[in-house]
């Protein structure tokens, strides 16, 4: 029987190309895929390719076991590997001192997604200005608040200069938020958590490393009764806050306290928590 002739690699169906491109890194979508051939260039313009600014490889690393019921996207909060491996910077660390430059680039990507209503996942670290330029955190977050009403996953990673007013604008404008990454930012404060609990009832996962405000666990338990995923690895959490998390009314299913140097009696505290929390990561 004559072997069936294979179709050329550059002549794949557009729907297949769009599905593949949507799972690639932002850098590939911007700098590589559109320049391979005409069919790839046409497919890369489809709005579905730009619904998420976070690569699929981030969501699925490490891949969950086949028997696991964990959704791959939960890695947005659960991953503990370095951020340079998680959020692939399409600009390789190059920043512009002009605050409008990053805003215009982010605006163009939102336009590629058909205006922003289809955008589900955003991290805006690559669009921040360089250290020698004025901050543009507020302008970027205001753009996200105006353009992405159906946003589900948001990373504040690397942002330090956003105002409280604009942070609250994002919280009010993105009621579909489910997973939030506060890592390397000072924004996980009681006021923001309280308003997020009111306006974003679907929050089920939070990540924060670095310095934590004292008694932040009370705000987490009070504001997010449906919180299931909490990653506090490399944070300043202490024994009192951990006690609140493992003995309170929380519905946590996953807790990461790896490399938390201020914990002293954590082995005793989590000893009885395994019956309530399915997965606890500690060292």
UniProtKB/TrEMBL annotation:
Residues 9-50 form the F-box domain. Pfam families: F-box (PF00646). GO terms for molecular function: SCF ubiquitin ligase complex binding. Coiled coil: none annotated. InterPro entries: F-box-like_dom_sf, F-box_dom, LRR_dom_sf. It comes from the Eukaryota. This is F-box protein SKIP1. It comes from Nicotiana tabacum (Common tobacco). The lineage of its organism: Eukaryota, Viridiplantae, Streptophyta, Embryophyta, Tracheophyta.
């Amino acid at each position: 029987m004559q072997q069936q002739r294979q179709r050329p690699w550059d002549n794949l169906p557009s729907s297949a190309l769009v599905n593949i491109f949507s799972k690639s890194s932002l850098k590939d979508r911007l700098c590589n895929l559109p320049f391979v051939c005409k069919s790839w260039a046409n497919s890369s313009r489809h709005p579905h390719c730009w619904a998420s600014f976070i690569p699929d490889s981030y969501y699925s690393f490490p891949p969950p076991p086949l028997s696991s019921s964990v959704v791959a996207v939960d890695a947005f909060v659960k991953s503990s590997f370095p951020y340079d491996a998680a959020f692939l910077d399409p600009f390789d660390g190059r920043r512009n001192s002009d605050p409008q430059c990053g805003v215009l680039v982010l605006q163009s990507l939102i336009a590629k997604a058909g205006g922003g209503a289809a955008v589900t996942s955003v991290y805006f670290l690559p669009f921040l200005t360089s250290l020698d330029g004025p901050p543009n955190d507020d302008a970027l977050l205001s753009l996200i608040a105006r353009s992405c009403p159906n946003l589900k996953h948001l990373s504040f990673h690397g942002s330090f200069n956003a105002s409280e007013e604009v942070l609250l604008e994002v919280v009010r404008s993105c009621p579909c938020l489910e997973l939030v990454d506060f890592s390397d930012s000072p924004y996980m404060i009681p006021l923001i958590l309280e308003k997020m609990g009111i306006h974003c009832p679907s929050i089920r996962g939070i990540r924060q490393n670095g310095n934590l405000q004292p008694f932040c666990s009370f705000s987490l338990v009070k504001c997010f009764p449906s919180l299931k995923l909490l990653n506090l690895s490399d944070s300043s959490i202490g024994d009192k806050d951990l006690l609140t998390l493992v003995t309170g009314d929380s519905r946590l299913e996953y807790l990461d306290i790896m490399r938390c140097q201020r914990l002293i009696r954590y082995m005793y505290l989590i000893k009885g928590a395994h019956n309530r929390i399915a997965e606890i990561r500690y060292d």
